[in-house]
Amino acid sequence: MRTLLAIERADVCLMMIDAKEGVTDQDAKIAGEAHEAGKGVIIVVNKWDEIEKETGTLEKYKQEVYDRLKYLSYAPIIFISAKTGQRVNKLFELINYVAEQNSMRISTSVLNQVINEAIAIVQPPTDKGKRLKIFYGTQSSTKPPTFVLFVNNKELFHFSYERYIVNQIRKEFGLEGTPVRIIIREKSEKDL
Prior knowledge:
Blueprint: H1 2-9, E1 12-18, H2 25-36, E2 40-46, H3 57-68, E3 77-79, H4 88-102, H5 108-121, E4 126-127, E5 130-131, E6 134-141, E7 146-151, H6 159-173, E8 181-186
Parallel strand pairs: 1-2, 2-3, 7-8
Antiparallel strand pairs: 4-5, 6-7
Helix pairs in contact: 5-6
């Protein structure tokens, strides 16, 4: 209960993981709550000084964390040691950075330019001869960045194409450490 209240009050949540234990079920549950709440998330691996290291240890560990927390693939991972102070000062810089990303505002014209470029690269899906048309998009809110896309037919907007659009937005604007929400609204061409 206290954890949920802390998540609700926070702008950026630090997912503290014990390097020796790895991601526990409890860690995964709390991370899921932070993600669903639209909070900025940083995965902090503590006690990194106690881990036996060899070539590739860091990358392998990162991959294991992302495999366990697939929905947090946007969250940066930082390896620290609270005991020795290793990289703790970098953590504060990262918190400020993720807070900025979570509250980023993107102008409608720039957003639509990115969406149009994305559509030009990968055509929207079709079903039974009908093609999805994305008329335009706009950012409706921040914390997390939420975008409303106006389309001809919501049913044609497949989850995989939504993920593609989100990835293109991330590629252009970063939005590291924050979930990105997409809301689909149906509009006919005559309404435009």
